[in-house]
Amino acid sequence: MAKSAQLTQLINNDVFRAFATYAAIVLLKMMLMSLITAYFRITRKAFVNPEDTATFGKGEAAKKYLRTDPDVERARRGHLNDLENIVPFVGIGLLYALSGPELSSALLHFRIFTGARILHTFAYLIPLPQPGRGLSWAVGYAVTFSMAYNVLKAAWLL
Q1: Is 141 exposed, middle or buried (CB count within 10 Å of its CB: 0-12, 13-18, 19+)?
Q2: How far apart are CA 125 and CA 78, in angstroms?
Q3: How far apart are CA 77 and CA 125, in angstroms?
Q4: Which H, E and C letters describe the chain, residue by residue?
């Protein structure tokens, strides 16, 4: 079979298309965290690099903007948590999508993960009281672990 035919077959696979959709959603959400962090840096005037303070003056006048801010740090931690959880989801989710799961099972995994990560972001940024953030993280982590288990089960006949 020609490579273009194989690629077309993959793109026409409902599970792969579902994976691509939900992976794109969570990756865009993760990219949005960069913009949220930048927004807080600018509005709170809290920078870590001297060159970023140049618009506020030179020398000592600019040094006061080289500082940390609780809102900036909260956004940064939320973004870091996305990196720690969404990147594994994308890798394991791709393997899972290629392992031949039922569409209903795949959609359940992808939708729960996506919902959990969106809830986690709101819980981090608002902030919502615990255990909301912890539970949303645990649900997303469990989904990724479940997909990994299913991949290993399919590949190694566990």
Answers
A1: middle
A2: 8
A3: 10
A4: CCHHHHHHHHHCCHHHHHHHHHHHHHHHHHHHHHHHHHHHHHHHCCECCHHHHHHHCCCHHHHCCECCCHHHHHHHHHHHHHHHHHHHHHHHHHHHHHCCCCHHHHHHHHHHHHHHHHHHHHHHHCCCCCCHHHHHHHHHHHHHHHHHHHHHHHHHCC
Contact 76, 131 (CB under 8 A): no
121/48 Cα distance (integer angstroms) = 23
Structure token digits, residue 50: 């001297």
What is the model's pTM? 0.89
Write the pLDDT tens digit of every residue in 72-119: 999 999 999 999 999 999 999 999 999 999 999 999 999 999 999 999
Separation CA 116–CA 139 (nearest Å): 6
Pull the structure tokens for residue 62.
């600019």
Q: Are 46 and 72 in contact (CB under 8 A)?
A: yes
- Compute the CA torsion angle 137, 93, 102, 110 (nearest 10 deg): 40
